TrEMBL record, chains A, C:
This is Alpha-ketoacid dehydrogenase subunit beta. Residues 4-179 form the Transketolase-like pyrimidine-binding domain. Its cofactor is thiamine diphosphate. The lineage of its organism: Bacteria, Pseudomonadati, Pseudomonadota, Alphaproteobacteria, Hyphomicrobiales. It comes from Acuticoccus mangrovi. NCBIfam families: PRK09212.1 (NF006667). InterPro entries: THDP-binding, Transketo_C/PFOR_II, Transketolase-like_Pyr-bd, Transketolase_C. Pfam families: Transket_pyr (PF02779), Transketolase_C (PF02780). The keyword Ribosomal protein does not apply. SUPFAM superfamilies: Thiamin diphosphate-binding fold (THDP-binding), TK C-terminal domain-like. Keywords: Oxidoreductase, Thiamine pyrophosphate.
UniProtKB/TrEMBL annotation, chains B, D:
The keyword Chloroplast does not apply. GO terms for molecular function: pyruvate dehydrogenase (acetyl-transferring) activity. The lineage of its organism: Bacteria, Pseudomonadati, Pseudomonadota, Alphaproteobacteria, Hyphomicrobiales. Keywords: Oxidoreductase, Thiamine pyrophosphate. Residues 24-321 form the Dehydrogenase E1 component domain. It catalyses: N(6)-[(R)-lipoyl]-L-lysyl-[protein] + pyruvate + H(+) = N(6)-[(R)-S(8)-acetyldihydrolipoyl]-L-lysyl-[protein] + CO2. The pyruvate dehydrogenase complex catalyzes the overall conversion of pyruvate to acetyl-CoA and CO(2). It contains multiple copies of three enzymatic components: pyruvate dehydrogenase (E1), dihydrolipoamide acetyltransferase (E2) and lipoamide dehydrogenase (E3). The keyword Amino-acid biosynthesis does not apply. It comes from the Bacteria. CDD domains: TPP_E1_PDC_ADC_BCADC. Its cofactor is thiamine diphosphate. This is Thiamine pyrophosphate-dependent dehydrogenase E1 component subunit alpha.
């Protein structure tokens, strides 16, 4: 299979869907000629024109609100939010309006829109350009939340998101834009709510979101050399969450660590760990471990920033401790 | 402020239109009287905000729209809803949280919507619908429907930054949207001049948006202006901004009874006695021989009866079944 | 001890602190003459004048941002956010600015401000005036989050919040404003990060936030009549969280249910349950239960709204099931 | 736009001031040249935004302020930081994430702050500091410090609704704040006219705020205006809004190298050749016999040496120790 970058996969997903459905428009800052600062959207305005690829002013709440209205009246807008950190600016339009419209209208109105944004630290971008805020939107009923872990997932999940009739927030890890993966030439969609077992193993389950997949894969390799076989589950969407696949794995391995790049406290690791601990309780041989980003604003200094995110080494060490039956409390 | 249209003689060929304007205003008043009564008698859950006094705004504007044109509304949204063509029965059911309500009882007064008539919904976030109305205009333009959208909001909503963001985009992109600012002199318990620096109309002009002011108690003046702007918006000459000077008769919400600390009884009495949009328009209709006092009286009674019947229906109607509670969170696949 | 309403307790806390410290100002919509729609602040403008009790336009992001700047330069602003649902509007100023300033400046700048807001459904106020959004801010490092469960806590926690040198968000349950509790005449403060054991019991621990205290107390009474003794812990602040007190209780009872009025998924029950499940693992006789609000926008209809929040009956039933050893999965 | 001040003859009694304005501008240019070089040579973590070309704005305004007056800055913040009195050493340490940086390396270029000199910090949220500057003005007024605050922001930030919310409050409450809009013609890769409908200056006038426009390449014109407005703001005549017409020489950030798709090389060359604030002011200083070319040359060399020494120091300086990672999340009790 050909290998393409995550960036290209996103670009292809949008282009394919826009060719198929003329009601799709894309809006955001510097999305047209500039193709975004990450150059993810290069070429789209040339094919679809400025009527469908709309450069907006620097008005995140405003253009998100416009997308909500357009979605309610026949369009399928894709909003490009340049940095995930700007989610804080659009929360009202996203969470008070888009997320609730279908419910509040008793099913009469709907908001088929996609908000594409990013996450991920270690780019030396400091506290307002490095956050992974997916837990916040996952808490709000009415939104779906996708977290692609590779170019393959990025394309398949984004296409599904665009066709979904609900507001979907999709988080791309900005450090993965240049990472390549096998992506079929033929069209495919990845259904929401279906986790993927990335690696089978008998000893411990790693539930890993987005780029934490790479962390889990590297840790699993190291551990494998030591005779420890980790199973890796990528939830792919955290709303809806494929609880069944996760629970089946943990019931088999008896041990689990959840790894996610959002802040650990009140984040995604809490939800997944709590569900495992509750619903696989009688199968657990050790407490469910959690590894999120440190509960600190992301520091600029490289010497500090790298300490704040989960790494393969720290995950492997945590897994060993879990298997040794040691308490595995967060630092 | 444009000159009063009711200063000019009636055009008999417009009689049907005039009567419809009158009837729509009377319907809103009747709706609100009943809603208020439901609240006072403890039959309505929650609170609600009365539109009484502002009828000429919603009616004058909505009568210039087609069913397919879109509006967005506010927490004070019953008037817009009636004016855009909604039925009493579904409206009262919604206010009472009943299954036959426009939103199956899930929205209530503050979220009442009527998709079939182009009402994208009331909104409990002040200013929160500015993006939605602008987005509907963007959709109309992209889809080539010739549709226009109207964003209703109060003077208080001028405090919200979102409005300026979307007005900028509407101006840049020449969207067919009309921002209708209902200046009823108060936002909750605060006077407009304590909340808004500068001239209200300057707020949109700053973005190069053509701006008008009109007497919001004069339904013909409002309607004339709206007809003109809607037509021009359809031709791509939008966006527009209109300040409509008006007044709310009740408290901020039905529970806001003792309100002399922020506005005087005299002021209220003056507006009701001298600037009531329905009374004044009725007088003009009679003076211009479009209708007799008896006809208007009859119309009022009809509307009142209709409202009462809808209230009775709604009171007796069933609540949604429990299993609807987690329905409509997501669109069924 | 005299009994006063929660509303009065809040009012007293602010008045006492404002008398003590002239740098305290309060700002928000209709906070002066109107004393807020809930009348919580009545009388303050008469005592402190409109220079210190500032009526603002309807500009939540704007006045929150102004508070941040004033806090950075010598004032101690209290922001009154009329409904907790409007948090979505101020997230950027609160989470990107206030929460991160101290850290980003390497400790040089600080933001001693309080954002007072509310939570709580069943007032028939529908989806945009009924949310309990405390989990969102709890996820953001740099913010502290207090959740008073009675007039006593409301006063003591608010006074502590006002004196804290960090941004603090305090959630009052709007349904409790008229509830009375014993509040001493003398001054007292309630330290952050100290949970309170409201009731001792040997069989099961209820961790209950804010008004869920009442739910837990009623359930405990019912259960007590059946011979089941529940221990009730009120965390009082969820950031910082007094893990030690919670864990000590669960290690004793061996069973726990966490009750909170935020949406269940990705909410506060997840964090607390996950910590218990991890750190009291070897003491647990049953899975940790979670009862949050249903994952649906809050419906207007009374017939539906009451189904969405935890009730004493449902909590008692859950506790019985836990003690019977039945699986206690969320519906 | 005000008439160029450098068209008028120099006042010899102001020589020290003139030279200080020149020196401050030269310092900013030297700082940025070194920062750019650090990036290009792979020694600087992350990205950064160069202020080169806009020096007269920051210097002209900050020289009108006292140390206690506050400013808020932007992602393009080095110029404001230097102009408000910061030291090269702590600044370069910050850009390199070193412990001796103004923010102990935690902020970096986009969050550089200098509390002691009244710089409340750069901000990576476009428009995000509008509330902070306004709040600082509120504090100054309440505390009676006579302080003034200046909110620096770009033309692109005019897209953010927050600005309009706080300008409204500043106007209502007569706060001593000056909104300084640096119109450098672009927000990232987009021209200002594609992002902003209407006239920029109208945006603040709509709130009744006195508004000025000035040539942002003319340091004397900027400074004269700033002195006047700051003095008036201290007397309670604020707020004010100023549009400063200027230009950035580099790309949006240091990595924005191929940029002809959004602006031409000719345009860049023209500004650099004909409207450089330092060159032109230097010429005037020479023409007016305030300084000789040699003196200015020497000053330039001094500044360059100073910058180089600070860079070397910063490169060799230690990173913060690992245990600082969870320090400063909360104020120590
Ligand atoms: C974002 C937001 N802030 C505050 C409120 C509370 N609130 C409801 S209506 C209202 C006043 C609105 O005034 P205006 O826009 O003039 O409308 P009017 O009530 O006069 O019709 C306020 C402050 C709200 N619902 N939403
Ligand atoms: C809220 C927000 N949106 C978008 C960005 C990305 N961004 C950084 S700088 C910039 C352009 C800002 O333009 P302007 O205000 O004119 O400042 P300039 O860069 O020209 O100095 C953008 C869009 C951001 N940092 N914050
Ligand atoms: Mg009003
Ligand atoms: Mg610019």
């Amino acid at each position: 299979m050909r290998e393409i970058t995550l960036s290209k996969a996103v670009n292809e997903a949008i282009a394919e869907e826009m060719r198929r459905d003329p009601t799709i428009i894309l809006m955001g800052e510097d999305v047209a000629e500039a193709g975004t600062p990450f150059k993810v959207l290069s070429g789209l305005v040339e094919e679809f024109g400025p009527e469908r690829i709309l450069d907006t002013p620097i008005s995140e709440p405003g253009f998100t609100g416009i997308a909500v209205g357009a979605a309610m009246t026949g369009m399928r807008p894709i909003v490009d939010l340049m940095f995930g950190d700007f989610l804080f600016l659009v929360m009202d339009q996203l969470c008070n309006q888009a997320a609730k419209t279908h419910y509040m209208s008793g099913g009469k109105l709907s908001v088929p829109m996609v908000l594409r944004t990013n996450m991920g630290a270690t780019r030396r971008s400091a506290a307002q350009h490095s956050q992974s805020l997916h837990a916040l939107v996952a808490h709000i009923p009415g939104l779906k939340v996708a977290m692609p872990s590779s170019a393959y997932e990025a394309k398949g999940l984004l296409k599904t998101a665009i066709r979904d009739n609900n507001p979907v927030v999709i988080f791309e890890d900005k450090l993965m834009y240049q990472d390549k993966a096998g992506v079929p030439e033929e069209e495919y969609l990845i259904p929401f709510g279906e986790a993927k077992v990335l690696r089978e193993g008998r000893d411990i389950t790693f539930v890993a979101t987005s780029s934490m997949r790479q962390v889990a894969e590297k840790a699993a390799e190291t551990l494998s050399a030591e005779g420890i076989e980790a199973e890796i589950i990528d939830p792919r969407t955290i709303v809806p969450l494929d609880e069944a696949t996760i629970l089946a794995s943990v019931r088999k391995t008896g041990r689990a660590i959840v790894v996610d790049e959002g802040h650990q406290s009140f984040g995604v690791t809490a939800e997944i760990a709590a569900r495992i601990a509750e619903k696989a309780f009688y199968y657990l041989d050790a407490p469910v471990g959690r590894m999120g980003a440190m509960d600190v604003p992301v520091p600029f200094s490289p010497a500090l920033e790298d300490l704040t995110v989960p790494t393969p080494e720290r995950l492997a060490e945590r897994a060993r401790a879990t298997l040794r039956g040691e308490p595995v409390h967060a630092a | 402020m444009s000159l009063s249209e009711t200063a000019a003689p009636a055009r008999p060929e417009n009689a049907a239109t005039y009567l419809r304007l009158y009837r729509q205003m009377a319907k809103i008043r009747a709706f609100e009287d009943n809603a208020n009564e439901l609240y006072l008698s403890g039959k309505m859950p929650g609170l609600t905000h009365m539109y009484s006094g502002q009828e000429a705004v919603a009616v004058g504007i909505c009568e210039a729209l087609t069913k397919d044109d879109k509006i967005t509304s506010t927490h004070r949204g019953h008037g817009h809803c009636v004016a855009k063509g909604a039925e009493f029965k579904e409206m009262f059911c919604e206010l009472l949280g009943k299954a036959e309500g426009y939103c199956r009882g899930k929205g209530g007064s503050m979220h009442i919507a009527d998709q079939d008539n182009g009402n994208l919904g009331a909104n409990a976030i002040v200013g929160g619908s500015a993006g939605i109305a602008t987005g509907a205009a963007l959709a109309a333009k992209r889809l080539g429907t010739q549709g226009v959208s109207v964003c209703f909001f109060g003077d208080g909503a001028l405090g919200q930054g979102l409005l300026y963001e979307v007005m900028n985009m509407a101006a840049l992109w020449k969207l067919p949207v009309i921002y209708a600012c209902e200046n009823n002199l108060y936002g909750e318990y605060t006077k407009v001049e304590e909340m808004a620096a500068g001239a209200l109309a300057a707020r949109a002009k700053a973005f190069g948006i053509e701006t008008h002011e009109v007497d919001g108690q004069d339904v013909l003046a409002v309607n004339r202006l709206a007809e003109d702007l809607v037509e021009r918006a359809r031709k791509g000459e939008g966006p527009f901004f209109v300040v409509l000077h008006t007044y709310r008769y009740h408290g901020h919400h039905v529970g806001d009874i003792n309100r002399t600390y922020y506005r005087s009884k005299e002021e209220e009495a003056d507006w009701k006695a001298n600037r009531d949009p329905i009374t004044n328009f009725g007088k003009w209709l009679v003076a211009e021989k479009i209708a007799t006092p008896e006809e208007l009286g009859q119309l009022g009674e009809d509307v009142a009866r209709e409202a009462k019947a809808a209230v009775d229906y709604a009171l007796a109607a069933p609540y949604p079944p429990a299993d609807e509670v987690d329905m409509h969170v997501y669109v069924a696949a």
